[in-house]
Amino acid sequence: MKITVIHGQGHKGITYKMTKTVLDFLAEDDDEINEFFLPKDGPGFCVGCNTCFMKGEEFCPGADKVQPIIKSMEESEIIILDSPNYVMEMSGNMKNLMDHFAYRWITHRPHANMFKKVGLTISSSAGAPPSNTVKSMAKQLKWMGVPKVYKFPLISNALNISTISSKKEVELKRKAEKIASKVKRRAQNPHASLKGKIMFYMFRKMQSSPDAAWNPKDRDWWIEQGWIENVRPWK
Ligand SMILES: Cc1cc2nc3c(=O)[nH]c(=O)nc-3n(C[C@H](O)[C@H](O)[C@H](O)COP(=O)(O)O)c2cc1C
Hints:
Protein name: Flavodoxin family protein
CATH architecture: 3-Layer(aba) Sandwich
Bound molecules: flavin mononucleotide
Helix content: 40-55%
Order of helices and strands: EHEHHEHEHEHHH
Strand content: 5-15%
Organism: Intestinibacter bartlettii
Number of helices: 8
CATH topology: Rossmann fold
Shape: globular
Distance between the termini: 19 Å
Largest sheet: 5 strands, parallel
Structural class: alpha/beta
Pfam families: FMN_red (PF03358)
InterPro entries: Flavoprotein-like_sf, FMN-dep_NADH:Q_OxRdtase_AzoR1, FMN_Rdtase-like_dom
Number of domains: 1
């Protein structure tokens, strides 16, 4: 099994520990884990040139950094996004990377492999519940076609790993084990969701109509995949 992990921060703090603990319970010795740390492994800020949409993702000024990450995601069974809660959201580094994935949204040129994957989003915060942050990152994966995204939020009651209490560490480990078993079970039985299929059919309708499909690059993609005919990404 292949697992892609994108860390929305460069340091190995509480959020990293949450992810690492999940992986300890989740991954087998022969699993391949590809980790990307932001901002080191990510692209510069999206400049809003629209080139990915209109001309092709390979022409994005950040393509050399974006493409290895997205390729790894597309080849993986499990995708994990983590980020500390920064002002009730994912880190700016993570959001910037998500901006670069816009062309892969179901509305544009989704990759067929995404429709059967399992996602997991992880976040810690000092005091306020980081539920918005895990939901926000999950939304990104869902719009790329991922049918099931589990969420692991944790209130750390700490500003960094050196001040986390041992009681909190016990809670972290217990929750990590539980979430890892859910992710593993789903990964062993990958399947598309009804909601994902409905979204696919909604945008298939749009791409099927020459009037509604405003971007020829996207429309050609849907035609090439055979999705306007009888091919379906989850089969
Ligand atoms: C820029 C910044 C913004 C933060 N915003 C919040 C916040 O809005 N609510 C909160 O409870 N914690 C906030 N925190 C605290 C962290 O989310 C929290 O300490 C987290 O557990 C740190 O995880 P880490 O060790 O992985 O960096 C913020 C921290 C930073 C550095």
